[in-house]
Amino acid sequence: QQQVKQSPQSLIVQKGGISIINCAYENTAFDYFPWYQQFPGKGPALLIAIRPDVSEKKEGRFTISFNKSAKQFSLHIMDSQPGDSATYFCAASKGSNYKLTFGKGTLLTVNP
Amino acid sequence: DVKVTQSSRYLVKRTGEKVFLECVQDMDHENMFWYRQDPGLGLRLIYFSYDVKMKEKGDIPEGYSVSREKKERFSLILESASTNQTSMYLCASRPPGGVPTYEQYFGPGTRLTVT
Which residues from chain B sit within 8 angstroms of residue A103, using beta carbons? Predict the structure, then answer.
């Protein structure tokens, strides 16, 4: 059973455009929702994270939108740049549980 | 600066061999993880360890075992490598519970090919 569903699998955006990646979760006990960014040849690195007590969190050009009732959250990348080209993973965990449940990833390509 | 290192970037082994993948972190983290990453499947947790000599199975432990004799080192063992274990293996570590971000720090990965 896939607990975190991520879409789309791949995304191509022009430079300066907005990239949007969506995730949906099933377990209402999840209370921490991070996004990880992975460049080729590197391990994933934390990009931004949100807790369900807020509906939006912004860090520079990256914004997480969170809809608790719909059990969905999304990553918005404003003014997308070629340097943002990477694979993005959403994830979720509950309480102080050590485990992160990851989505399957989205390969983002930003064309110059 | 946080650092997680993995012993090999690329590894080629034969079917039936016993394979050791090593991971070392220098952050004094208690929690360490092994994932495998396959195209279209994302990151799947194999095993994790929340303290020295303590371990728990993740979502796909079959065919794998782990060892954690020292806090900084977490080893993944393929007892008898098979071709379906060809994959990218990622190690991660995390501070103990109670830290607000629960951030996991990843190593660069080991690409294992079993022929």
Answer: 42
Residue that is written with structure tokens 């050590």 in the block: A98
The residues facing B47 across adjacent strands are B34, B57
Is residue B52 exposed (0-12), middle (13-18) or buried (19+ Cβ within 10 Å)? middle
- The 10 Å CB-count burial string (b at 16+, else e) for A2-22 is eebebbeeebebeeeeebbbb
By Cβ distance, the residue of B33, B41, B103 closest to A46 is B103
Q: What is the pLDDT of residues A41-54, one digit of tens each?
A: 999 999 999 988 89
* Bond into A40 cis (ω within 30): no
pLDDT in tens, B21-75: 999 999 888 899 999 999 989 999 999 998 888 899 999 999 999 999 999 999 9
- Any chain B CB within 8 A of the CB of A83? no
Rounded Cα–Cα distance for residues B17 and B29 (Å): 31
Give CA–CA dist B40/A23, Å, rounded: 15
